[in-house]
Fold:
Amino acid sequence: KAGVTQTPRYLIKTRGQQVTLSCSPISGHRSVSWYQQTPGQGLQFLFEYFSETQRNKGNFPGRFSGRQFSNSRSEMNVSTLELGDSALYLCASSRRGGSEAKNIQYFGAGTRLSVL
Amino acid sequence: DQQVKQNSPSLSVQEGRISILNCDYTNSMFDYFLWYKKYPAEGPTFLISISSIKDKNEDGRFTVFLNKSAKHLSLHIVPSQPGDSAVYFCAASAQTTGTASKLTFGTGTRLQVTL
Structure:
């Protein structure tokens, strides 16, 4: 079974630009969550999408947005990039459901974004 | 406000010995805890989890202990192997509040297993 796939793996952008990152979840997983990892703040939750709807949101500005498609694939968009947005962006998928096992999140390898 | 804390940034253990990684949390709503291992340039890999209704969960060489009254959990790796060298993250979620997908992570502990 294929794992979580994130594209691209690396990205270089300049301040003010926007960027779109993509995530394909594990087959059968309908929930996709996004996280930002930086040396200073560690791993922080951005948002979760399930059934094409945002279900949970972390404490990030509105420049960070996402969406989910009917096949559960998800995209994350960051507009008006700032230097501080340089980070590893991780996507995780889960089945999402009543049992704890269904809520275990499995991560992709991430997209390393550098903002110059 | 760091709700999940891993106070030891690094730990060095000899091969074959026990590795003990610790994690403390402050949010009483957390009811599900997970440990992830992360190698450089890879995403976190799920290791083991524990629900707040249990105090121990075992999976092969990995055992997680939960002390709810102390808001403390620990991961034991026995015996430690060189391939265990990685950064270990503790994570917590509040499943009963509908935010099971929102994992709060600790800052990680870098484990080095020496020969």
In short: Chain B touches chain A through 26 residues (CB under 8 Å). The first strand of chain B starts at residue 4 and ends at 5. Chain B has a mean pLDDT of 94.
